[in-house]
Amino acid sequence: MPKAPKYDCAQCPGYCCSYPRIIVSEEDIARLARHHGLEEKEARKKFTQRYRWASETETIDERVLRHRPDTVYTSTCQFLHPTERRCTIYEARPQVCREYPNSQRCGYYSFLKFERKQQGDPEFIPSA
């Protein structure tokens, strides 16, 4: 039996949604398209963008979710509700989001709990 997680996403302002590269697969795009009643080509264009980066030793070429400006972080995934701080496509979210944080603990949640205790403020959000 899997162990229960030691974090509560409902207590977090969506830190993982602020990651600049939330990678999506073709299966994720198909899921988003079905969720929104769109063709895959339209969903790819509307919800994702290509991320490319190269150095002498490494090349990255990925499809990632689009971002929008945010009041807590510089920007977040376009599917993070700006005030409720919850995923608006939870049932159709990408695989990487389904697997995050891939362990029983979330490092940011542990940090956030510690900072809130230190500040004596249960809603404190550390600024960048």
In words, what does this structure look like?
- The chain has 128 residues and is of the alpha+beta class.
- It has helices at residues 26-36, 40-47, 95-99, 107-119, and strands spanning 48-54, 59-65, 67-69, 75-77.
- The strands form 2 sheets. It has a two-stranded antiparallel ribbon with strand order 1-2. The chain has a two-stranded antiparallel ribbon with strand order 3-4.
- α1 packs across α2 (40-47).
- The N and C termini lie far apart (38 Å).
Short description:
By secondary structure, this protein is an alpha+beta fold. The chain contains four helices and four strands; from the N terminus they run ααββββαα. It has helices at residues 26-36, 40-47, 95-99, 107-119, and strands spanning 48-54, 59-65, 67-69, 75-77.
Pick out its properties.
128 residues, 29% helix, 16% strand, globular
Write the SSE topology.
Blueprint (H helix, E strand, L loop, with lengths): L25 H11 L3 H8 E7 L4 E7 L1 E3 L5 E3 L17 H5 L7 H13 L9
Antiparallel strand pairs: 1-2, 3-4
